[in-house]
Amino acid sequence: xxxxxxxxxxxxxxxxxxxxxxAEGDAARGKQLFSRCAAxxxxxxxxxxxxxxxxxxxxxxGAMEGYRYSTALLNSAVVWSDETLDAFLSGPSKMLRGTRxxxxxxxxxxxxxxxxxxxxxxxx
Length: 124
Hints:
Layout: H1 2-16, H2 27-37, H3 71-74, H4 82-90, H5 92-95, H6 108-119
Helix pairs in contact: 2-6, 4-6
């Protein structure tokens, strides 16, 4: 009977709070995974073929100084957070049609780890 009560409670909570809960990522593993991203993105404030990602959390998309963004990013109202980064990494052009970023991170765990790592990077 107690198991049934727990199942009913969880069901009610999921109906009342439908927001997606992102898995906590492993920042150390995310740092390793970021090596794939480092071909285009730096974490030292220097833009490459993609913008630098240090201090990305809380930053409006298209706001890294000195980088020539796509119109899609410049005109978006996106502010980078766990949710927006997860959505963008899972399919950049699905989230923002016209973005120049074409690489997706298909694994939910990999995205969570990369996002956790990015959260550790201060703005420079």
